[in-house]
Specification:
heterodimer, A: 114 residues, mainly beta, seven-stranded mixed sheet, 0% helix, B: 110 residues, five-stranded antiparallel sheet, 11 strands
């Protein structure tokens, strides 16, 4: 099975712009989660989608949003970018019946905000 | 919000040495996961521990879940350069959400 794929791998934006990141989960996985990883804060949960519905959301401002499509692919959007949004954004998928919510991660999108 | 504290933050050792990293919390967990993340990649699941006192072995890696299910440790025997990476512990934080520790960055010097 192919793993989780994320595009693009690298992105450079300027403050005030918006960005859309894409994630394709492992085939058959309907749960997709997004995380932000920074050296200072580590991995922080953004949100989780299942069958096109957001089931849980982390403690991030409304500038961070996401969606999931009927084929389980997911996108996240960050509007009005700030310098502090520079981070590695990781997408993870999980099997429907994963008993402990085990996550399978993609390689991430490295976002740099100038 | 339950916090996972990992120690040490950084560890640099020579090839062949043994090491232990720790993951502690004041909360009780139903399960705990360990991941390893290599530079430029996403974390990869190594193991899930579920039962208090449980010990799991994965080649040279030994994982232990504390009796009270509040802490866990990862012991590596005879470390190799290929073990270099960021080791993360994670636990359930409500429905459909994992909380991660900040990780232990391990460097194994040949």
């Amino acid at each position: 099975k192919a793993g989780v794929t994320q595009t693009p791998r690298y992105l450079i934006k300027t403050r005030g712009q918006q960005v859309t990141l894409s994630c394709s989960p492992i085939s058959g996985h309907r749960s997709v989660s997004w995380y932000q990883q920074t050296p200072g804060q580590g991995l922080q949960f953004l949100f989780e989608y299942f069958s096109e519905t957001q089931r849980n959301k982390g403690n991030f401002p409304g500038r961070f949003s996401g969606r999931q499509f009927s084929n389980s692919r997911s996108e996240m959007n960050v509007s009005t970018l700030e310098l502090g949004d520079s981070a590695l954004y990781l997408c993870a998928s999980s099997p429907d019946r994963a008993p402990y919510n085990e996550q399978f991660f993609g390689p991430g999108t490295r976002l740099t905000v100038l | 919000t339950q916090l996972l504290e990992q120690s040490p933050q950084f560890l640099s050792i020579q090839e062949g040495e043994n090491l232990t990293v720790y993951c502690n919390s004041s909360s009780v967990f139903s399960s705990l996961q360990w991941y390893r993340q290599e530079p430029g990649e996403g974390p990869v699941l190594l193991v899930t521990v579920v039962t208090g006192g449980e010990v799991k072995k994965l080649k040279r890696l030994t994982f232990q879940f504390g009796d009270a299910r509040k802490d866990s440790s990862l012991h590596i025997t005879a470390a190799q350069p290929g073990d270099t990476g960021l080791y993360l512990c994670a636990a359930g934080a409500g429905s459909y959400q994992l909380t991660f520790g900040k990780g232990t960055k391990l460097s194994v010097i040949p």
